[in-house]
Design brief:
Helix content of chain A is 83%, strand content 0%. Chain A has 241 residues and is an all-alpha fold. Chain A has one domain. In chain A, helix 3 packs antiparallel against helix 6, helix 6 runs antiparallel to helix 7 and helix 6 packs antiparallel against helix 12. The longest helix of chain A has 29 residues. Chain B contains eleven helices and 14 strands. In chain B, the strands form three sheets. In chain B, strands 6-7-8-3-9-10 form a six-stranded mixed sheet, with helices on both faces. Chain B has a four-stranded antiparallel sheet with strand order 2-1-4-5. In chain B, helix 3 crosses helix 4 and helix 4 packs across helix 5. The longest helix of chain B has 19 residues. The chains are: A mainly alpha (241), B alpha/beta (316). Chains A and B meet through helix 1 and helix 5 of A and helix 2 and helix 3 of B.
Chain lengths: 241, 316
């Protein structure tokens, strides 16, 4: 049932030009940046090796772009259905609220995973000329997937709050940006509890190739928290109104 | 089989803040019945329907659909319901086929039966010709039909339609009414409307709701019987003396209407037809029209919905 909803959501996503254009633009941007960093590396190779000098930069750029991309993809999820009044179709069908939320969530994660695949193909292409550090690359990929998973959960929750997709996008962007900003105090006060909550500081470990279960847990908690919030929010719709 | 209770609503209430939208409503619907749900705007029709379909949680009371409690066993109860909300819940970017496939899967129709279910629903709603068109490009009437097809695709025992003929042209309205009558043979149907002839044309039973309360619950036949025996419409070629008409036994009131017609109200058990005919023949009034004056559903509706308000105001 989750997959039925996810499949429908993906289909609708790909029926709009937005999804294709985002994928195309992202791939173009990644390609250009990859090309430039590859050229820079071949001019003056660093002792860390090709993977360490190229991959983290690329995946960090992906994070920055996700700040803008994810809200645009998630904004429609519930707010557009609310506006079109098509939610009763899901609510009166024999599916639970959790299945509805998970279905939509998985659709967006699947869509963004396509982006991760095209992104990852670029460093993989370096295998033609050199050996690459798979450990570092995998840490980056896992970090990326966890990051986009949490971004999507936050965006999905924002989409349950309003009927206006643009508003959902701005709310999601604001929330993501605030979570990122939390790491700023670390510049003046060193690592502290606030900066620990920042969504970016955990990602940095993955970029360095450090796979720590604490970072994984952080993202899983964020994902679970916002998915539960979304379910509760939709249930509240039924109760309040 | 006609006695199987498919919808059992007990003491249902719903508050929005302190505003009571539905107040202590109880009713049952049997298998194979078409029930018309009538009421003025804001009476609580849509709220009741939303609660019946699990889109809104009731404040108090219980709902059982085909024997499954909607709150305790929502999955089983919801799979027995097909629901068309006021606004058909469509995905406009899909074609009719794609959309109905999704609805079939959503309602847990086994994979190998989905195609047959889709085709049957399209057939019933007259959608076969537009199956490959985008829902966004269909006319309002066809979109409404897609909404109905969505509600019946899994052949639910209970079909709930919220104002199914709104925004349709007269021919489409006729077709939808036929479709509803047709559905009534195999499903139980609840439909809400504020078009009264629609109820008379399609329903077996009628429920009138006003200010959140059920003010009438009767079968159409019972209702009509009740209405017929209340008055007579007569016309005479010559002016008949009103005083003499009023003196006829059983007549309570004479009312003058357009084109010289008179409306006579009488005690239900004292039919004055014979007496009127006899006197007309004796006195040469020239009786030229005599028909049982049926109080229309409209009048009952107005009577029930306005009387309540008047008594409410008195109470306040």
């Amino acid at each position: 049932m989750i997959f039925t909803i996810a499949a429908r959501e993906l289909r609708s996503l790909f029926l709009s030009p937005l999804a294709w254009i985002i994928l195309a633009v992202m791939t173009l941007v990644f390609g250009i940046v990859f090309d430039i960093s590859l050229a820079a590396y071949s001019q003056s190779p660093l002792p860390d090796g090709a993977t360490a000098s190229i991959v983290p930069g690329l995946y960090e750029l992906a994070m920055v772009l996700l700040f803008f991309i994810v809200p645009m993809i998630t904004m429609r999820l519930f707010s557009e259905e609310r506006r079109n009044q098509s939610l009763p179709l899901l609510f009166s069908a024999p599916v639970s609220m959790t299945e509805i939320v998970l279905g939509k969530y998985l659709a967006v994660v699947a869509y963004l995973s396509i982006m991760v695949v095209t992104l990852t193909l670029m460093p993989l292409s370096m295998m033609l000329g050199t050996s690459i550090d798979f450990g570092l690359l995998f840490a980056n990929i896992i970090g990326m997937v966890l990051l986009l998973g949490s971004f999507t959960a936050i965006g999905l929750f924002m989409s349950t709050l309003t009927q206006v997709p643009a508003l959902a996008a701005i709310l999601a962007f604001g929330a993501l940006f605030l979570l990122w900003l939390l790491k700023l105090p670390a510049y003046w006060f060193g690592e502290n509890a606030v900066s620990y909550l920042s969504i970016a500081s955990h990602y940095e470990n993955f970029l360095k190739g450090v796979f720590s279960s604490a970072d994984v847990m952080y993202y899983i908690v964020v994902i679970a928290l916002f998915l539960v919030f979304s379910v509760r929010r939709l249930e509240a719709d039924r109760l309040g109104g | 089989m006609t006695d199987t209770v498919l919808i059992d609503v007990q003491e249902l209430s719903r508050y929005f803040g302190s505003h009571c939208a539905v107040n202590n409503v109880s009713f049952t619907v049997n298998k194979g019945e078409v029930v018309g749900f009538l009421g003025p705007n804001g009476a609580g029709k849509t709220t009741t329907m939303k609660m019946l379909t699990g889109n809104l949680a009731p404040s108090t009371g219980s709902i059982a659909i085909a024997g499954h409690d909607l709150l305790d066993d929502p999955r089983a109860a919801k799979s027995a319901i097909g629901y068309l909300p006021e606004q058909p819940p469509l995905y406009r970017e899909l074609t009719v086929n794609e959309y109905l496939d999704f609805c079939a899967a959503l309602n847990r129709i086994p994979r190998d039966q989905r195609l047959a279910a889709r085709d049957a629903a399209k057939e019933k709603c007259g959608l076969t010709a537009v199956a490959d068109r985008l829902i966004a490009n269909l006319s309002k009437g066809y979109q409404q039909r897609v909404g109905i097809a969505q509600a019946i695709i899994h052949m639910p025992p209970v079909v709930i339609l919220d104002e199914p003929t709104v925004g349709l042209d007269p021919i489409q309205i006729r077709e939808i009414r036929l479709l509803i009558r047709d559905l009534g043979k195999e499903h139980s149907v609840i439909l809400s409307t504020h078009i009264l002839p629609e109820v008379q044309a399609t329903c077996d039973r009628v429920q009138i709701i006003n200010d959140g309360q059920l003010v009438l619950h009767d079968s159409i036949d019972g209702l009509e019987h009740h209405l017929q025996s209340a008055s007579l419409t007569v016309a005479f070629r010559k002016d008949a003396p009103l005083s003499e008409l009023e003196s006829i036994k059983g007549i309570k009131k004479v009312e003058q209407q357009r084109e010289g017609r008179l409306r006579l109200f009488y005690e239900p058990d004292q039919d004055p037809v014979d007496e009127i005919v006899r006197r007309s023949a004796e006195n040469g009034w020239g009786l030229c029209e005599l028909r049982p004056g049926r109080v229309s559903l409209e009048e009952i509706f107005l009577h029930l919905t306005t009387e309540d308000k008047a008594s409410d105001e008195e109470a306040a």
